[in-house]
Batch of 2 targets.
Target 1
Amino acid sequence: MQNYQASANALDEKVILITGAGDGIGRVAALTYAKYGATVILLGKTTKKLEAVYDEIVAAGGPQPAIVPLDLKGATQQNYRDLAATIDQQFGKLDGLLNNAGILGALGPMEHFCTSTFENIMKVNVTAQAMLTKALFPVLKKSNNASVVFTSSGVGREGREFWGAYAISKFATEGMMQTWSKEVDKTNIRINCINPGATRTSMRASAYPGEDKDKLATPEDLMPTYLYLMSDDSSDVNGQSLDAQIKKK
Ligand code: NDP
């Protein structure tokens, strides 16, 4: 689906929540979904960054977004329930949920992993996404056609030395998608993963500080797959893990 071309109004009338919408891939996904007509709910840790994305969408003439400053590391069940209630009140439904926020944490040998770093990574990359998705299920059920997307990684499909808790969290993400997608099969909700592949963001730069970033794909390059999974053209796609980039041989 790397060559998917969405029609200009592909996401009209859709309400889509993006986590980690202030920076990197999530920021570009939010701008892109708004450009194709969606009302986007921008969730992230740093309010200033969310406000900048909000301003960009409004300046481009997109539907008025909403901002949800929330640190997924400390977020509680009540935070998620409150968010679901607000979405229900304001929009009456949720059509898309892009679970994109993630942290890399520390890379290094498993033998030396630090328990608190391990727990933080699992909280942000796995537990928070499960809790958020669960809390939003009632509003997702109110959509005619809802799409939940989790964000995977190459290191979540095949183990790689020194990628530690991050890799383990991405294996868990793939497992969560596979498990949950089977439970929603033939309902109005579909659940899939995207593996972005190496992409020019600050997370990638901290994993590979010496790399020539000009050789990397940009978040914009990934958007056909991100659009596809949120558009009704993927209504029948459930339980898949898609690559956003064509693999180099
Ligand atoms: P960035 O670090 O550029 O952006 C991550 C986003 O997540 C930021 O908006 C950040 O907010 C937000 N975030 C981080 N921690 C929290 C938190 N505790 N609560 C709320 N929001 C938080 O990462 P990328 O854009 O590169 O990555 C996006 C996704 O893609 C991640 O899941 C990553 O694992 C995955 N991925 C990325 C690849 C790449 O090469 N870039 C490759 C494979 C997978 P703030 O800026 O406010 O901290």
Target 2
Amino acid sequence: ALMITDECINCDVCEPECPNGAIYMGPEIYQIDPDKCTECVGHHDEPQCVQVCPVSCIPRDPSRPETHAQLFAKYLRLQDAD
Ligand code: SF4
Ligand code: SF4
């Protein structure tokens, strides 16, 4: 999963771009639900939030390292949940 750092300026452009609805406004800045973030695997070649973020504050979450196969499995689980 990706994460949003405290460099976020709350511009709101990433939230509507997420195909998994993983981005939400937290107490102070936007946040990513790691259980919903597939790093856009299954939907797009590149993480859409990273593409649009004007301040480049969306790195991989070092506490949630995932392989492409794990991310794709999460994508399939999220499809089933719909
Ligand atoms: Fe959503 Fe993709 Fe960004 Fe993850 S990488 S938060 S799935 S837009
Ligand atoms: Fe924050 Fe970047 Fe999202 Fe804007 S695009 S709300 S700066 S994470």
